[in-house]
TrEMBL record:
This is Translesion error-prone DNA polymerase V autoproteolytic subunit. The lineage of its organism: Bacteria, Pseudomonadati, Pseudomonadota, Gammaproteobacteria, Alkalimonas. It comes from Alkalimonas delamerensis. Belongs to the peptidase S24 family. Keywords: Autocatalytic cleavage, DNA damage, DNA repair, Hydrolase, Nucleotidyltransferase, SOS response, Transferase. Its EC number is 2.7.7.7. The gene is umuD. GO terms for molecular function: DNA-directed DNA polymerase activity. Signal peptide: none annotated. Residues 27-142 form the Peptidase S24/S26A/S26B/S26C domain. The keyword Secreted does not apply. CDD domains: S24_LexA-like.
């Protein structure tokens, strides 16, 4: 069953979580794959891997959202990538978060020291200082990024 698409009051569009019945475990091989020199392949299965079990720690507080733009490319978040966002996690220094700044949704790295700000991962974009008077709220912590190698 395909996930439904939703739009929040802030204009943030996300894909709904699939129901438990649509979860599919795929084979997981025991051997690792060399990212350097090739190694001989072996046909040993470790078991099955369910991506929901691997990626989603808080199912009722987790949602997907599609990234738009190039402000986070230095953090390997590219235009069109799907972000897995966990609202149950407490945002900490250096976390990548989905935040509302003066009513606009953005994905940025949260810096709490030396002063609170949201920082892009692209030098083209200035940091957003979280000074008094700024309407700011963390909407969730980005826990995973899904991007296609071929589109």
């Amino acid at each position: 069953m395909a996930a439904a698409s939703f739009r929040s009051e802030q204009g943030l569009e996300w894909l709904g979580a699939p129901d438990a019945a649509s979860s599919r475990a795929l084979p997981m091989y025991l051997n690792t794959v060399a990212a350097g020199f090739p190694s001989p392949a072996q046909d040993y299965l470790e078991g099955c891997l369910d991506l929901h079990e691997l990626l989603i720690r808080h199912p009722t507080a987790t949602f997907f959202v599609r990234a738009r733009g190039d402000s986070m490319r230095g953090a390997a978040i590219f235009d069109g990538d799907i972000l897995l966002v966990d609202r149950a996690l407490q945002a900490q220094h250096q976390d990548i978060v989905i935040a509302s700044v003066n009513g606009d949704m953005t994905v940025k790295r949260l810096l709490l020291k030396p002063e609170p700000m949201l920082q892009a991962a692209n030098p083209k974009y200035p940091p957003i200082r979280l000074d008094e008077g700024i309407d700011f709220e963390v909407f969730g912590v980005v826990s995973s990024v899904i991007h296609q190698l071929r589109r």
